[in-house]
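Sequence, please.
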């Protein structure tokens, strides 16, 4: 079972979860980065505003060809109760994803809002079957049990 773990991370938390999944389940890490990075001055007024309005940022890599993978794990930080503009763009950039399975997760301060529902809908529109989702808040992201639940979900998707 080959898998890829696609994620965006501004301050490192979503990346940390991705790396733990990679360590436990294997697979390729694909970090998505906005071509124009945000900084402390721009991330809330510009990044948060763009997330709130469901925008897509220009990203690297520009295309994400998942033909060679059986399943995907996709992780986003929550910005303004929604996925980040980089993850909106990453879902749009998926190539050959039809019929593949995905487990999705979000990390947040405590209010994930519509994040999971929006990702699920965008992926299903592309023919991806979302077989599991998980939200981590500030506390649970440090809780090994919750990370293990995600790992179990990823492994279960592989044998389903
Ligand atoms: C622009 C911006 C908007 C945010 N909006 C939310 C939000 O709506 N709800 C929430 O619980 N946390 C919010 N947060 C906190 C992040 O979701 C949380 O710190 C996340 O784990 C960061 O992931 P990262 O370190 O991978 O970037 C926001 C953070 C930023 C920078």
């Amino acid at each position: 079972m080959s898998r890829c773990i696609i994620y965006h991370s501004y301050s490192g938390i979503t990346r940390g979860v991705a790396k733990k999944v990679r360590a436990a389940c294997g697979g390729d890490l694909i970090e998505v980065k906005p071509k124009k990075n945000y900084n402390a001055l721009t991330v809330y007024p510009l990044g948060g505003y763009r997330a709130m309005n469901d925008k897509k940022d220009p990203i690297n890599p520009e295309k994400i060809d998942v033909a060679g993978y059986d399943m995907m794990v996709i992780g986003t930080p929550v910005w303004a109760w929604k996925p980040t503009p980089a993850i909106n763009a990453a879902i749009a950039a998926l190539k050959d994803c039809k019929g593949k399975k995905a487990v999705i997760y979000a990390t947040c301060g405590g209010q994930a809002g519509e994040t999971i529902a929006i990702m699920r809908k965008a992926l299903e529109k592309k023919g991806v079957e979302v077989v599991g989702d998980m939200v981590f808040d500030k506390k649970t992201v440090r809780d090994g049990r919750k990370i293990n639940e995600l790992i179990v979900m990823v492994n279960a998707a592989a044998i389903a």
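The longest helix spans residues 144-159.
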